[in-house]
Amino acid sequence: MNKIGLCLALGLALVPALRAELALPGVISDHMVLQQQQADPIWGWDTPGTKVTVSFAGQDYATVAGADGRWLVKLAAWPANSTPQTLTVAGSTTRVVQDILIGEVWLCSGQSNMELGVGMANNGAQEMAAANFPEIRLLKVPKLWLPQAQTNQAANWKTCSPETIAQGGWNGFTAAGYFFGRELHQKLKVPVGLMDSTWGGTRIESWTPPEGFAAVPALAGLNDAVKLGDPHTAEHKQRLKQFLGETETWLAAAHASLNDGSLAPAMPAFPSDLLPPHDLQNATALYNGMIYPLHPFGMRGAIWYQGEANLGEGRLYAEKMKALVGGWRQVWNEGDFAFYFAQLAPFNYGGEAARLAEIWEAQAAAARTIPQAGMAVINDIGNLGDIHPRNKQEVGRRLARLALARTYGQAGVVDSGPTLQGITVEGSTLRVKFEHADGGLKSRDGQPLNWFEIIGDEGDGFVAADAKIEGDSVVLSAPQVAHPAAMRFAWSQLAEPNLVNGEGLPTGAFRAGTVPKRDWLAKQVPESKEYTLVYDLDLNRMGQEIHWDVDNRDKIAGSFDRVAYCLELQDANGVYQSVFVSMDAFTKSLDQIGVPTVASGAHFQQNVAHLNVFSNVKGLVTGTGLDGGNIEFWPNNYGQNNAAKVPNASSATFDFGDEPSDPEDGYGSMQVHNHAARQTIFSLNDWHAGPGGDVGIGNNPGENPDWTFAKNAGSFKVKELRVFVRVVGK
Questions:
Q1: Distance between CA 729 and CA 320 in Å, rounded?
Q2: Which of 164, 326, 327, 703 is close enough to 209 for a disulfide, judged by CB 3.0 to 4.6 Å?
Q3: Does residue 525 share a domain with residue 508?
Q4: Peptide bond before 663: cis, by omega within 30 degrees of 0?
Q5: Could you tell me the sign of the dihedral formed by the alpha carbons of 302, 304, 310, 313, in that order?
Q6: Which residues does 13 contact at the CB level (< 8 Å), separation at least 6?
Q7: What is the three-class DSSP state of 192?
């Protein structure tokens, strides 16, 4: 049996079939906690048309099982109660649910840092031995992803004890969730129910319901995919109808081939976009198996710890959080229930250090924009060498602070570290004002404040700033920056900053101000005024096809005698590089001076005359009328052999003298060189790979001077290529 078949079988086994006896979902079981001060749903299944009576706390609630066998009643809203209660449900048979408490119920979900069990946390053995809290109740949802939403799950509630806290999961019940619940129980003096629905290494979209994707315009692609995979939607039925038509046409052709002995056409393949979730990471897969079966059980809210599996998505992750929270709230239909989450801890993921900072920025944006949401910053309790930091006690306490202050309205509870209020330029300094500086700003370790950086309108990137506390502000300066324009804080996956408030709560990563866009071309390249723009391409959008952001070919009349290229790059640290290079025209066709695709017909390996080079890259030879210019423009693959015998080139490395080869639509080279100086002036290779392509100014300090196989395009936040000509006749 394949994965889809197995999951369907498992899921269907959990759906109560129409039968002549009463059934309750696993979430309604002995030892459960009902949400206080809320009309809690009680539901189940029975023979269609059967009268069902639910008795609780001296009150009876009657209903009738529907055509699908499902029934539901809502209890009266009750205050918290630590005295065990009994629930009796009578239909075709009778079920009695015992040892029910009334208090606060929370869902705990996410990937491995929420899944990590109490036994894996700091002092895990001692914490388990001390977990004797009969008024805390635990529900551990079994791991299960499914193609379609299922109505039941197999777990039941258990009373918290040293034995039950250690059962299942990754060395026990979720540590972050347990410590959160324990803090609420001890502070509120009421019973607490915790539902642990977690799975390590999983993406947020797998936990998200279809309703969530539908409500977020930025996720239209995911929404379309979910609808196509759902056999109930009009989109799925229309696409299936189209496929059936194609199949019927094929059948007719195949029958004809059978009769006349001709070769039958290939049978059309079943469209993959019609498949339901067929992998753990597919959108809605975990929601179907591990979240939907819990609804509509009454709860106060949810806590969440996830994001590592979505690293690299930047601000898009905020949109996915909106979909998750909005979707859950729509499904539960309780309004904007509380949603609190842990910001990811610092960790050395390798690669670009700013990727994690961008997820931090997205999480902070989600906390600001999602109603009744809050974020616990934990950058002071991580472990750069362990993606699973073990101080889950403090994670739970900080999440509990959010709930105690915002959900339960407890006075005097500080729930946030300092957050940005605004910035002001004051001469050569930048003042950063903070909110939530409760008890005053201070350094956590008594050392000078760290991880503040600033950039000026004249600088070459962000530089470390001297940071001084003045009241509720931090004043930033740096000797190299006379006119600060922007700042950032903790903008690295390695950042464990020391700015905290009087309660010891830390400040999360943020950035403010506008990183200057330099008008380098107009200021530093006088001859650029003689040229007319033909093409402009944002290399962040390069891919299998080249779609110019600006294409002025139709607007240029007459001939041209020179061609020029301007490449500008800016990395995640704000370091700016640029080059302008012009040369005598090597073709009369405007079609052939851009990125050399197969469609353009551009294929040039030749010298170019009267090279003019302007650049801010140290070591790159600049000047006008330079000899020794050559270009390597082709869409082909290429090898190291210097078959063209370019002076100073090597046949042992990729440089300014390489040999194009098949296939024609291959790796691709757009390179301008100064072989007399043994230098690459600029290079753009493998543009089909998008962020995995190669781009550089000057010689690559690595193995291949012309940047072949550098695969570094994704490291530049700004990368723009412009192509110009000097028009001489109309």
A1: 54
A2: 327
A3: no
A4: yes
A5: positive
A6: none
A7: strand
Helix (H) or strand (E) holding 239: helix 234-260
Could you read off the pLDDT of 610-646 as tens digits, one per residue?
Answer: 999 999 999 999 999 999 999 999 999 999 999 999 9
**Of 484, 513, 542, which residue sits at a domain end?**
513
Q: Are residues 528 and 503 in the same domain?
A: no
User: What is d(CA 253, CA 18) in angstroms, rounded to the nearest whole number?
Assistant: 45
The lowest-confidence range among 15-29, 132-146, 490-504 is 15-29
Q: Are 576 and 569 contacting, i.e. CB atoms less than 8 angstroms apart?
A: yes
Helices 175-188, 392-402: inter-axial angle, 10-degree rounding: 50
Closest to 324 in 3D by CA, of 109, 141, 113: 109
Its sign, for the CA torsion 277, 278, 282, 287, is positive
| Residues 6 or more apart whose Cβ sits within 8 Å of residue 565 | 579, 580, 581, 582, 672, 682, 721, 722, 723, 724
Enclosing domain of residue 655: 520-727
- Check residue 730 and give its pLDDT: 62
Could you tell me if 496 and 449 are in contact, meaning their C-beta atoms sit under 8 angstroms apart? no
Look up residue 355 and give its two tokens: 């990727």
Same domain, 572 and 627: yes
The residue type of 392 is K
The first and second tokens of residue 45, run together, are 């299944």
pLDDT at 353 over 90: no
Q: What is the pLDDT of residues 374-400, one digit of tens each?
A: 999 999 999 999 999 999 999 999 999
**pTM of this prediction exceeds 0.70:** yes
String of DSSP letters for 54-106: EEETTEEEEEE--TTSEEEEEPPP---EEEEEEEEEESSSEEEEEEEEEEEEE
* Backbone angles phi and psi of 107, in degrees to 5: -90, 130
Q: Which helix (H) or strand (E) holds 521?
A: helix 520-524
Q: What is the mean pLDDT of residues 33-62?
A: 98
Please report which confidence band the pLDDT of residue 20 belongs to, taking 50, 70 and 90 as the band edges. low
Asked if the structure places residue 673 within a domain, the reply is: yes
CA distance 547 to 535: 10
Kindly state whether residues 608 and 705 are assigned to the same domain.
yes
Whose structure tokens read 């040039």? 604
- Assess whether 559 and 588 both reside in one domain: yes
